[in-house]
Design brief:
8 helices, 3 helical TM bundles of succinate and fumarate reductases, about 200 residues, globular
């Protein structure tokens, strides 16, 4: 019974990492990238997202609760997982390790980012272009955001590879090699968008 429960939890954890969390990550990166067009472009995109109907319900159900489950169970996996050299070999074993490390870094980054933006907004601070300019004016915070964003994107892209295997989509070795290249392209493309956005604020 415990084994079946863990199987289900791992499937849910994997699914939530891609849908809806992965989709939200891509949407968040693309909306923030409007900052490359200047303050007005960013404010317009941000205002559109903030004016969505049932915004708080959507944020809670589609973002916060899935992230909470994914994070808590992810920490359990990270600190109880065994080395898998014999199963995947050298490269995949490193990806296995980096997935756990990037997950912890991403969790710390998300918690801080939410504190600096959403929690600050709840206390009356306006979340806008200037807020991010002020945050990223510190070289330490800029570096922190670079590491946090790259970790989050890696965790998603590498997690997408695992998702495809876990759900039986990429079964053959060839399909897994192809998905490796696809997820690398996704990682590079999203990382470029994320870092480009950061530089737009400085």
């Amino acid at each position: 019974m415990a084994g079946n429960r863990e199987f289900v939890y791992r499937r849910i954890h994997s699914l939530l990492g891609v849908i809806p969390i992965g989709i939200f990550l891509m949407q968040h990166l693309l909306v923030n990238n409007f900052a490359t067009g200047g303050p007005e472009s960013f404010e317009k995109a941000a205002h559109f997202m903030e004016s969505l109907p049932f915004r708080y319900v959507l944020e809670t159900v589609v973002i916060y609760l899935p992230i909470l489950f994914h994070a808590i169970y992810g920490l359990y996996i990270a600190f109880t997982a065994n080395n898998n050299v014999s199963k995947f070999g050298f490269f995949r074993n490193w990806m296995f390790l980096l997935q756990r490390v990037s997950g912890v870094i991403t969790l710390i980054f998300i918690a801080w980012h939410v504190w600096e933006t959403r929690v600050a907004a709840a206390f009356g601070k306006e979340v806008n272009f200037q807020m991010m300019v002020d945050i990223l004016s510190s070289p330490f915070m800029f570096a922190f955001y670079v590491v946090g964003i790259i970790s989050a994107i890696f965790h998603f892209a590498n997690g997408l590879w695992s998702f495809l295997v876990t759900w039986g989509i990429t079964v053959s070795p060839r399909s897994q090699v192809i998905s490796t290249y696809v997820t690398i392209v996704i990682f590079v493309a999203l990382s470029f968008i994320g870092i480009q956005t950061l530089f737009a604020f400085v």
